[in-house]
Amino acid sequence: MTLIYQYPDLIPGRLIKRYKRFLADIELVTGEVITAHCPNTGPMTGICVTDSLVQVSKSNNPKRKLAYTWEMIQLGSTWVGTNTAMPNRVIKLALEQQLLPELVSKYNTIRSEVAYGKDNKSRIDFLLTGDSSQPAIYLEVKSVTLSQANLALFPDTVTTRGQKHLRELIDLVPETIAIMLYFINRSDCDTFAPSDTCDPKYGELLRLAVAQGVIVLPYRFEITPQGISCLGLADFLACEPMLSTS
What pLDDT digit, counting tens, does each position of 78-112 carry? Predict the structure, then answer.
């Protein structure tokens, strides 16, 4: 399987604890205990499991306060991406290489972090444009790590920012093409749904967005210490199934 993104040499270790959101103490295979940057603002529900195997990258930039970055964690036999900056990097590479079948030939220009929305106070992850006969494509990316068996769920907590993004995408149609791309940051899920349990308002808005013409693309990715590859689209469920009580 072709890698879209190839990691530099990563260093294995085990998670001791995550704290203050952006810090994680990790014991490397050498026995050294380091504090790594945790580039993830969310609660990491279900994936921040103490003593699990992790992989970190190391920067040679002497100006960085923390040389190490926590990139992924292993849960069972599955690696789950923990660096929330990585999905946008991977999607940009995929767009540049025309690797996403639903978007092939619909654009020739890619712009990142473009101001839009009311008073231009928000920024869309990607603005894709083609010739004058084609509508612009506004593409927002969300990293998905929460799962229930083989079902990927977003969000893993209440997200007013995510709700705002959905409202703004709704406002863009039908004059443009608005896409919400969910980057499923683990390979063990083949279906996707909004997490009504974690944020019922988000689920309500996502269903409204679909009804209004916003396109939902839940892409599956395989994360390994070598790199990241795309597994195609997951099945999209309109809502989170109820857990069986039997």
Answer: 999 999 999 999 999 999 999 999 998 889 999 99
Q: Please classify residue 27 by burial: count the beta carbons closer than 10 Å to its beta carbon, then call 0-12 exposed, 13-18 middle and 19+ buried.
A: middle
State the pLDDT at residue 245: 39
Asked if 201 and 219 touch (Cβ cutoff 8 Å), the reply is: no
Cis upstream peptide for 135 (omega within 30°): no
In terms of DSSP bridges, do strands 177-184 and 137-144 run parallel, antiparallel, or are they unpaired? Answer: parallel
Closest C-alpha among 79, 82, 56 to residue 69: 56
Cα→Cα distances 154→49, 55, 221, 222, 232, Å: 19, 24, 15, 18, 18
State the sign of the Cα–Cα–Cα–Cα dihedral 150, 165, 202, 47.
positive
What one-letter code names the amino acid at 72? M
**What is the C-alpha to C-alpha distance for residues 17 and 29, in angstroms, rounded to an integer?**
16
Q: 134-154 pLDDT, tens per residue?
A: 899 999 999 999 999 999 999
